[in-house]
Write a structure and sequence with these properties.
Layout: H1 7-14, H2 18-24, H3 33-46, H4 52-59, E1 64-69, H5 75-90, E2 94-99, H6 104-116, E3 121-125, H7 131-139, E4 144-147, E5 157-161, H8 163-176, E6 182-186, H9 192-207, E7 214-217, H10 222-232, E8 243-246, H11 249-262, E9 272-277, E10 290-293, H12 296-312, E11 320-323, E12 327-328
Parallel strand pairs: 1-2, 1-3, 3-4, 4-5, 5-11, 6-7, 6-8, 8-9, 9-10
Antiparallel strand pairs: 10-12
Helix pairs in contact: 1-2, 1-3, 5-12, 8-9, 10-11
C-alpha cells in the first residue's frame, strides 16, 4: 500500500486551492456546488480521507468522549457501553475507549493519555479517579462523570444504582424466606459498589437480628468466584450457608455452576442464591437467577445528561445520582410465602 493522499494532492487534482479542500471537508464555510463536486471527485479518485481527529484537536472542539473501563468480562458493562455509545452519538459525540486496570497508578497513566487527545469529557466506568487526576481534569476544563462507581469527592459527579438499598432487599428476602445462615461473596474490596452492597446487606440482616454466617471474596472475577464458592461450602452440610448473596451476576453464574455441577446442590431447595445487575443471561432458563436489577437505561441517560450539561452549558455543580432497582424474583432463591401470588 502506498502513502495516504494529502489535501494538497486533492487540491492539485481538482485544480483548486488547498483552503478550498479544507472548506469542503468540514470547517463550516460555504462552497459552491461545483466546487464541492470537484473536490469530492478528486478525493474519491485519490482515496483521500480528512483527518477528523487532527482537525478537532487543532480547533479544541473534538466532540470526543473518553470512556475508561477496567474489564469487559462482566455482561453488565458490555450492555452499558453499547448504550452509552449510542446515546452519545445521538447527541453528536463519539466515544474513544481506553482500557485500564484497577490500580490507581494505571488509571492515572491512562487519564493523562486521554487528556492529550483533547477530549470534551470523560466517563469512568468500573474505575475510580485519584485526587491528582481530578485536579488535572478540572484545570483542563474537562468534566468527568463516574458510571457505576461512587467516590468521596464532592466535586465529581457519579451515577450508580442504590447499592445499599439493593443489599437490604436481598437481606429482607432471605430473612422472610426463613434463611438463618446467610453467606456473602464480595466483589473487589476497593470498589464502592462492593462496599455499599455489602453494607446494605449487613444492615438488613442486623435489623432482623440475623448475623452474616459466612463470607468470601470473589473480586468480580469468574474463576475467583468459583474458588470462593468451593471454600464457602468445603465444610460439613450443617455448617454450610443456606443462602448466598453474590455481589454481581457475573460471579453468581460462577457460583451457581459450582453448587450445581460440582457439589450437586439444588437451587433453591439446598441453597438460595441471589446476584446483582440483572444482565440478560440472568433470565435464561439455564440460570433463572434471582437478582437486583440495575436500571441501565436510566443510568445511561442520567450519565449522558450530566456530562453534556457540563460540556455545553458549563454546569459544573457535581451531581450524585442513586437509582433504585427492583429485586427480580426467579427460581434460584426461595420466595417468602407472603410474596407469592
Amino acid at each position: 500500500m502506498g502513502k495516504k493522499a494529502t489535501s494538497r494532492e486533492v487540491a492539485e487534482r481538482a485544480g483548486v486551492s488547498q483552503s478550498a479542500v479544507s472548506r469542503v471537508f468540514g470547517n463550516g464555510a460555504a462552497v459552491s456546488r461545483e466546487m464541492d463536486a470537484k473536490v469530492r471527485w478528486a478525493a474519491a479518485e485519490l482515496g483521500y480521507r480528512p483527518n477528523v481527529l487532527a482537525r478537532a484537536m487543532k480547533s479544541g472542539d473534538s466532540r470526543i468522549i473518553g470512556l475508561v473501563v477496567a474489564y469487559l468480562e462482566n455482561y453488565f458493562y458490555n450492555e452499558a457501553f453499547e448504550k452509552l455509545s449510542i446515546a452519545l452519538q445521538t447527541r453528536g459525540y463519539h466515544v474513544m475507549m481506553f482500557m485500564a486496570s484497577q490500580t490507581a497508578g494505571n488509571v492515572d497513566t491512562v487519564m493523562e493519555e486521554i487528556l492529550d487527545y483533547q477530549v470534551d469529557g470523560i466517563i469512568l466506568a468500573s474505575v475510580e479517579l485519584s485526587s491528582k487526576l481530578a485536579e488535572q481534569c478540572k484545570l483542563a476544563d474537562v468534566p468527568v462523570v463516574l458510571f457505576n462507581r461512587g467516590q468521596d469527592r464532592s466535586d465529581i459527579s457519579s451515577v450508580t444504582s442504590d447499592n445499599r438499598a439493593g443489599g437490604r432487599k436481598v437481606a429482607e428476602l432471605f430473612v422472610r424466606a426463613g434463611m438463618t445462615r446467610p453467606g456473602y461473596i464480595a466483589g473487589w474490596e476497593e470498589a464502592s459498589t462492593q462496599r455499599d452492597r455489602e453494607k446494605g446487606f449487613r444492615e438488613g440482616l442486623n435489623a432482623a437480628g440475623v448475623s452474616l454466617f459466612a463470607r468470601e471474596v470473589g473480586n468480580y472475577d469468574f474463576k475467583t468466584a468459583q474458588e470462593a464458592a468451593r471454600r464457602l461450602f468445603a465444610v460439613p452440610p450443617h455448617e454450610r450457608p443456606d443462602s448466598v448473596f453474590v455481589a454481581n451476576d457475573h460471579m453468581a453464574f460462577a457460583v451457581m455452576d459450582v453448587l450445581r455441577y460440582e457439589l450437586d446442590l439444588r437451587l433453591p431447595n439446598d441453597v438460595s442464591l441471589v446476584g446483582y445487575d440483572d444482565v440478560p443471561l440472568a433470565s435464561w432458563a439455564a440460570y433463572d437467577l434471582t437478582t437486583v436489577r440495575q436500571r441501565i437505561v436510566t443510568m445511561v441517560d442520567e450519565t449522558v445528561t450530566i456530562l453534556i450539561d457540563q460540556i455545553e452549558q458549563s454546569e459544573r455543580s457535581a451531581r450524585r445520582i442513586h437509582i433504585d432497582g427492583p429485586l427480580i424474583l426467579r427460581s434460584s432463591a426461595k420466595v417468602p410465602d407472603a410474596w407469592k401470588n
